[in-house]
Amino acid sequence: MRRALLAFLALVAASIAPVSASAVEPAREAPTVPASAWYLVGDDGAVLAQQSAHQQRAIASITKLMTAIVVLEHARLDDVVRVSPRAAVLGEATVELRSGEELTVDELLRGMLVPSANDAAEALALSVGQGSIDRFVELMNAKARELGLADTHFENPHGLDQAGHVSSARDATMLVRYALGVPFLREALGRSTVSLPGGRTFETTDDLLRSWPPLVGGKTGHTGAAGWSQAAAAERGGVTVFGTVLGSDSRSLRNEALQGLLAWGLRQYGRVQLIAPDRVYAEATTGYGRPPVGLVARDPTVRAVRVGASLVERVVARASVDLPVRRGQLLGEVQVWEGDRLVASSGLVASEAVSEPGLLGKARWYAEQTADNLWELVT
Fold it and tell me: What percent helix, strand, coil does the chain show, rounded to 5?
């Protein structure tokens, strides 16, 4: 018996109950952010808050995220780097590198990211650039173009103020999001200290990493032109947001700005049961007088969704199915959409088995059908 596969198609506005009502109480207004520019985005790509997000500005040591990305693409962690005299004399934030000493790429990357050492950034750039900072910076700018960082142009690997060395709050946020997707960088950016050969131990410049548990990691920056700045991510209850603040007037104001922005972003999401475990999404008729079979989700799904998001549920399932039906037999699909973005999906399977009758059972059913048809004819 031929069956129509797409005989049942339903599009309904989703009425999806949150797992915890308190988890999705919206914060109606964005926080006051003591910074010159900021940008906040959810893991779903939704832009949650922004101010002067594409304004080109100095970003100071946030630059080092790109330096680390480029180094990892062109060197191995166990490669050994001999520190050049040029790197050893670079001042401000340092890990006290000495000319001629040898460290691994792994050690130098951690030294560059955790205490934000300029000398480590210079040493890595000279190594990967084969003695040429300009060659390394070309690699940085090529990667920026690849990542779609349209407001960004680099002139050096460390972020010290230099004409033409600019990015934006939006680009810095995209950069930290990409960097935190690299396992080594995510681990390194989440460290509060780093130890290097020679008994050298340094603490992170990221105050929130030690004081605010939701912070996943990020990169701070400070110069005269950039002010106090940071790009970072925060995670709580399966919700992740990414944000950047640029140009705060002090270290404490930067911390206040970033924590407030990220915390507000986390409150814009809640954990929701998108696909329920016990709900019958559709029924498929069987045959020979057997009962219809209910279709349930194979993969119940709880996911973080944005507060106030308009969700649409789409069910595509068989209207009828040949016997026998096995319990767990795939007979359709349920999808949950937010606009044109698929949020969740699951196969729909038979909730129970339905057997096929034997010859005697089929004969009895045909006889009953024939009698019913004859009765309709004579009445």
Answer: 30, 30, 40
Prediction pTM value: 0.82
CATH topology of domain 27-267: Beta-lactamase (3.40.710)
Q: For residues 352-374, b (16+ Cβ closer than 10 Å) or e, as one string?
A: eebeebeeeeeeeeeeeeeeeee
pLDDT tens, 308-366? 888 999 999 888 888 888 999 999 999 999 888 899 999 999 999 887 765 655 556 55
Residue 166 contacts residue 58 (beta carbons within 8 Å): yes
Q: In the prediction, which pLDDT does 185 show?
A: 98
Residue range(s) in the chain whose domain bears CATH number 3.40.710.10: 27-267
Task: Pick the more confident residue, 368 or 134.
Answer: 134
**Residues in a beta bridge with 303:** 272
Best CA proximity match to 64, nearest among 120, 10, 142, 134: 120
Distance CA 180, CA 211 (A): 20
Structure tokens at 271: 């954990």
Q: What CATH architecture applies to the domain 8-20+272-360?
A: Sandwich (2.60)
Q: Report helix, strand or coil for 201.
A: strand
pLDDT in tens, 267-289: 999 888 999 998 999 999 886 66
